[in-house]
Amino acid sequence: MSYDKLGEAAYDRLNGLYPPPSEKQGTSQATEDSEAKDRRSSAEGKSRKRDMFLLLRDHAHEDRVLSSLWTEVNTIPQWVCWDQIARGQEVFYRYGGPALTGLAFQSLLGGMVGIAPQSSETTQHILQCTKDLYSIQPGGAGHASSIRVRLLHAAVRRRILRLARSNPEYFNVDEYGVPINDLDCVCHGIYEFCFSNPDSDRNNWNFQCYADLVEFSQAGDLVEDSQLSQIQGPGD
């Protein structure tokens, strides 16, 4: 099962070259009591939080792996159609309000209770990517935000696999495959915004989304042929 190996390699390299501040402060804080740690974390807040995008941008020229990722994310594929993306942004802003409201209070309410900051950050990412064409192009806020999400996915994937190795019941890799893989990401996006639309025409809209999924997957070389054969369209 394919997944973002380059993004994961870049994350590992950044984590090794520029580890989190908590890993660089020596052993003097090892005995710090929990209340003191909470006070310190609250006081320092975001000032201690690494920005992986800025680290990648500023140090891409220093490392081969980082350079490869930076070149990849700033190279626009020939198949990109900016007019089509602009139309998609317009459609999103036309129906985005009701869609996000339903997503927040129906789909995500049960699964994301207690993690409001992550939900807010996800919404911010969506709005940045759909603001205008410049925002999603290299140098734009949406483009930078997407790279941050890509590196975040690499971090989460690493953590899940590490926990699975120590506790196989936490996540069954043999059954579900590598977490946050390419096929899951593509299918989730298509299903989230297309198949789950209760007002859609099943014989047209849903099948078109399924066809788009297969076409997009093949064009972007995101999944293997054997995996494509396992994707079932509505009514199959």
Describe, in plain words, how this protein is organized in 3D.
The protein has 236 residues and is mainly alpha-helical. The chain is 65% helix and 0% strand. Helix 1 packs across helix 8. The two termini are 23 Å apart. The C terminus is likely disordered.
Defining key terms:
disordered C terminus, 65% helix, 236 residues, mainly alpha, 0% strand
Topology at a glance:
Blueprint: H1 5-17, H2 34-44, H3 52-59, H4 64-73, H5 82-107, H6 116-130, H7 133-136, H8 141-166, H9 173-176, H10 182-195, H11 202-219, H12 225-228
Round the Cα radius of gyration to an integer and report it.
20 Å
Order of helices and strands: HHHHHHHHHHHH
Please tally the helical runs, counting DSSP H or I stretches of 4 or more residues. 12
Largest sheet: none
Task: Write a concise synopsis of the structure shown.
The protein has twelve helices and no strands.
